[in-house]
């Protein structure tokens, strides 16, 4: 009699376990970004951060990741977090025009060598409080940059500034637009995800992108000519969180978020970009594309006066608005000399 009773008890226990609902997380965060789900930025930054936060919270925080601008278009992603359409975003500051002018000083020529270097610079500027006032309406978690941006064209190979005349080039931000205007191009503003269709349709003649962007957004399929101008520009990014959502978390879960913020994650993000720069360039080489590297980069005599003038104009415009642009620029240059 005991064995049938034991079997029945075990069966009842198993049935109860099967029917018991899975315990829901205490908090669910929606993380929005514009990269495609196949991109390393989605897998190794956004999703990796989400998984780590969930694990370290013991499952009390669940992070749902929404790639490909499914919650908000790229220019609206920062405000989407501010207005709680999303709880967290990974986005480009410069896509929200005129919101982060001091942060975008790092985009100027000659500051950034690669993503790890640029991310050290921008995270340090934030940590030191030089640009933190620009983020008073959200809670930044970490800031970073991509590697050096280059010029990629469909038909005409750019060797010197005069080659830009009449060409419509996609620009990511107003800062890069000023550089391209100085070089003689016609900058056309658009987020990276829109570039493929614009090049394919002949709306633009080329793009300003780093090598990783060429690969991720498939622009290497359309632009067989590439010009590397060492130090031309970079782009600033951030992962930031809605302040009210953060403040609603209990102290121990706030600590989980805090432990997944700052310089460590800034460098994790940078590593993804730097690895993909290598892959993106190798892809262009494997396709037999023409790559022209400007001797001396931004210090080349044909390029330097134009780029120096554009940088000076940007700083002067900010100073005229009462912003300490030259102070931030000077500190960015000091950090550029010490960051590895």
TrEMBL record:
<protein>
    <submittedName>
        <fullName>TRAP-type C4-dicarboxylate transport system, substrate-binding protein</fullName>
    </submittedName>
</protein>
<keyword id="KW-0732">Signal</keyword>
<dbReference type="Pfam" id="PF03480">
    <property type="entry name" value="DctP"/>
</dbReference>
<dbReference type="InterPro" id="IPR038404">
    <property type="entry name" value="TRAP_DctP_sf"/>
</dbReference>
<dbReference type="InterPro" id="IPR018389">
    <property type="entry name" value="DctP_fam"/>
</dbReference>
<dbReference type="GO" id="GO:0055085">
    <property type="term" value="P:transmembrane transport"/>
</dbReference>
<feature type="signal peptide">
    <location>
        <begin position="1"/>
        <end position="24"/>
    </location>
</feature>
């Amino acid at each position: 009699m005991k064995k049938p009773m034991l079997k029945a008890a075990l069966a009842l226990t198993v049935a109860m376990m099967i029917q018991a609902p899975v315990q829901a997380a205490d908090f669910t965060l929606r993380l929005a970004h514009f990269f495609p789900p196949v991109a390393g930025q989605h897998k190794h930054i956004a999703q990796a951060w989400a998984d780590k936060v969930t694990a370290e919270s013991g499952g009390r925080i669940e992070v749902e990741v929404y790639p490909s601008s499914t919650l908000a278009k790229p220019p609206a992603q920062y405000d989407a977090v501010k207005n709680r359409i999303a709880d967290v975003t990974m986005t480009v500051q410069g896509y929200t025009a005129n919101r982060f002018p001091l942060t975008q000083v790092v985009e100027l020529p000659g500051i950034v060598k690669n993503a790890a270097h640029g991310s050290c610079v921008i995270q340090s500027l934030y940590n030191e409080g030089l640009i933190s006032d620009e983020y008073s309406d959200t809670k930044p978690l970490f800031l970073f940059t991509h590697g050096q941006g280059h010029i990629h064209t469909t038909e005409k190979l750019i060797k010197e500034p005069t080659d830009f005349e009449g060409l419509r080039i996609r620009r990511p931000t107003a800062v890069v637009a000023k550089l391209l205007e100085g070089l003689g191009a016609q900058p056309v503003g658009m987020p990276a995800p829109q570039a493929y269709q614009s090049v394919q349709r002949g709306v633009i003649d080329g793009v300003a992108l780093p090598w990783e962007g060429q690969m991720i957004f498939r622009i290497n399929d359309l632009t067989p000519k590439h010009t590397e101008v060492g130090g031309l520009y970079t782009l600033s990014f951030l992962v930031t969180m809605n302040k009210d959502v953060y403040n609603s978390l209990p102290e121990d879960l706030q600590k989980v978020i805090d432990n997944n913020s700052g310089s460590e994650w800034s460098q994790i993000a940078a590593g993804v970009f730097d690895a993909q720069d290598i892959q993106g360039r190798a892809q262009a080489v494997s396709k037999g594309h023409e790559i022209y590297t400007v001797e001396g980069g931004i210090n080349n005599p044909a390029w330097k006066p134009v780029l120096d003038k554009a940088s000076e104009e940007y700083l002067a415009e900010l100073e005229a608005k009462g912003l300490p642009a030259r102070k931030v620029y000077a500190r960015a240059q000091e950090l550029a000399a010490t960051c590895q």
